[in-house]
Design a protein that fits this description.
CATH superfamily of the largest domain: Type I PLP-dependent aspartate aminotransferase-like (Major domain)
Number of domains: 3
Number of helices: 19
Oligomer: single chain
CATH class of the largest domain: Alpha Beta
Number of strands: 21
Strand content: 15-25%
């Protein structure tokens, strides 16, 4: 790794911040008096958030952010809102932008600027304000900062108030050469250029022959990919698709069984409750696979007429055994419904023998969010007993077009599905990425929730130990340009972080993230101590 960016969190990092602050704003720029300790603690230190740039575990650059009003700049020029050429609803003040002399080749500045922009966007700030030394005004301009108001400071240490927005950053040199975030999320997906073009094309009527043709092509691709006989496309998310399946199951006589080993299995019980369905729940520890013998004992009892389960449990990274569910349901005459939202497009899915299954466009199929699917293997008749939008039979009888649909979403999915003409190649690439991620995570000494044959390739869930914060790790990866999954409520509650392998990631970026991961998770104080003593890690 060349440079690493993160939020300062350890005592030693803060110590190095005070030293860099002194060298820059007391020795180099005579803004503060010199002292024997050669350290300068900022007067707003306790209110500052420091984004730091590190090289070989040493702080070589920093930016301090402070959102509490009044800003120090308010005290110099008056309320900043009255001076800015635009209306800033939620500004943040940037202070103490400093880089060690040996690293002022632009790269560290660029990285700090990118990290700053990412942090501000995530925090909901719409403008970053700074008093920039006039000595480096050209460099500030390259980062996207624009001047406003009058100079402050003294003749020896003059400062220009400047502002940065997402628009000025993108228009500057730094923004034009900055890299987009690398996507390790389980959705939204990374969208290819061709899929984007299809999405942005001129829309056409859902009642046209052109729409019927494109929709039919999409349905044929989806059924070929999964082995299902029929599929209906819905304008909505996977929650809508599962509601449609719940509506069908609610019309089945008898009691059901729902299997739960994660958040999305639990959500199936919520779907069932809202339809006032009679069911039992078999709930086991999250992150563990089901015992086929226990399921067999439950199904052979004759108490149940349907089974509802998640194939790839997104919240944990467990791939539940679809083959065993199909075999048992066939053996005991049980209707089988499966949530395949995170499975389709990431692993081989055979829906032969499955009565109902759900999927979406915005995960493994790498298209835009907004379409969901319900697969079925028997003809479905429309009924007046269900809400129109949730009646699967209405879609089936209308040949998939009962209501207004988006030609753009359908056309984009049609193009995305072209990548699955040879699906085994896609699955192999995902598996290869997952293998590298799992190896790197284990070498970093971090526990992976799902293990062995039950682990899905699509999602690796890291159960961080006490003392390591998933939120802090996720935020720091974000500052370095990597978007991982850690902000959902069920992940925050358990201190879990997920790395999704379903998106097509450039090998160089994958390896850069995997090299960075252990550096951000090591016990920093011990690392610094060992380095100081000349020891190896």
């Amino acid at each position: 790794m060349s440079f690493m960016y993160k939020i300062a969190e350890t005592a030693l990092e803060f110590e190095q911040i005070h030293e860099l602050n002194y060298r820059t704003f007391a020795e180099e720029i005579p803004q503060h008096d010199r002292n024997e300790s050669r350290k300068l603690v900022d007067k707003f230190h306790d209110e500052n958030i420091y984004i730091i740039c590190k090289k070989d575990y040493r702080v070589v650059g920093m930016i301090a952010l402070r959102s509490k009003r009044p800003f120090s700049l308010d005290g110099k020029i008056g309320a900043v809102e009255h001076q800015l050429p635009f209306q800033a609803k939620n500004p943040v003040e940037i202070r103490l932008l400093a880089i060690e002399k040996n690293f002022r080749n632009g790269r560290a500045f660029l990285g700090l600027a990118q990290a700053l922009v990412q942090y501000c966007l995530k925090g909901g700030y719409d403008a970053a304000l700074i008093s920039g030394t006039v000595r480096e005004q050209k460099l500030y301009g390259q980062l996207g900062f624009l001047p406003f108001a009058q100079l402050t400071g003294t003749a020896e240490a003059a400062f220009q108030p400047m502002y940065l927005t997402i628009e000025t950053f993108e228009a500057g040199v730094a923004g034009r050469i900055s890299k987009p975030l690398v996507n390790f999320l389980p959705g939204p997906a990374t969208i290819s250029v061709d899929v984007r073009k299809a999405m942005m094309a001129e829309p056409f009527s859902h009642r046209s022959s052109e729409f019927e043709s494109v929709l039919q092509g999409v349905k044929e691709k989806l059924t070929a990919l999964t082995g299902a006989k029929y599929v209906q496309l819905l304008q909505g998310t996977g929650t809508l698709a599962n509601d449609v399946v719940g509506a069908q199951l609610s019309m089945h006589s008898g009691k059901g069984l729902i299997l739960v080993n994660g958040e999305f299995g639990f959500r199936l019980t919520d779907h069932a409750q809202r339809f006032s369905m009679e069911f039992d729940t078999m709930e086991i520890e999250w992150g563990t696979p089901f015992d086929a013998d226990e399921i067999r004992d439950a199904l052979c009892s004759g108490r149940y007429s349907w089974l509802w389960v998640v194939h790839c449990e997104t919240s944990t990274g467990v791939l539940n055994d679809l083959c065993s569910f199909k075999k048992l349901c066939s053996q005991y005459g049980i209707t089988l419904a499966v949530d395949c939202v995170s499975a389709i497009g990431t692993t081989a899915v055979n829906l032969t023998g499955v009565d109902y299954a759900t999927g979406v466009s915005g995960k493994g199929l790498l298209s835009y969010t907004g379409l969901s699917f319900v697969f079925h293997n028997e003809e479905i008749a429309a009924t007046n007993s269900l809400p129109r939008y949730l009646d699967l039979g209405t879609y089936s009888e209308a040949k998939g077009i009962p209501y207004t649909q988006s030609s753009n979403l359908i056309a984009a999915l049609d193009v995305a599905l072209l990548a699955f003409e040879h699906p085994e190649e896609v699955y192999a690439a995902i598996s290869n990425r997952a293998s590298k991620v799992r190896k790197a995570v284990e070498q970093a000494g971090l526990p992976i929730l799902a293990s062995g044959e039950s682990a899905a390739d699509a999602i690796v869930t890291i159960a961080l130990p006490t003392g390591l914060s998933a939120i802090q790790l996720g935020n720091n990866l974000f500052l370095n340009g990597f978007n991982v999954h850690y902000e959902s409520a069920y992940l925050r509650e358990r201190n879990w972080l997920q790395i999704s392998c379903m998106n097509d990631v450039v090998e160089k970026e994958l390896m850069r993230m995997l090299e960075l991961l252990p550096l951000l998770t090591l016990a920093h104080e011990q690392v610094f101590t060992n380095n100081t003593n000349g020891k190896t890690r």
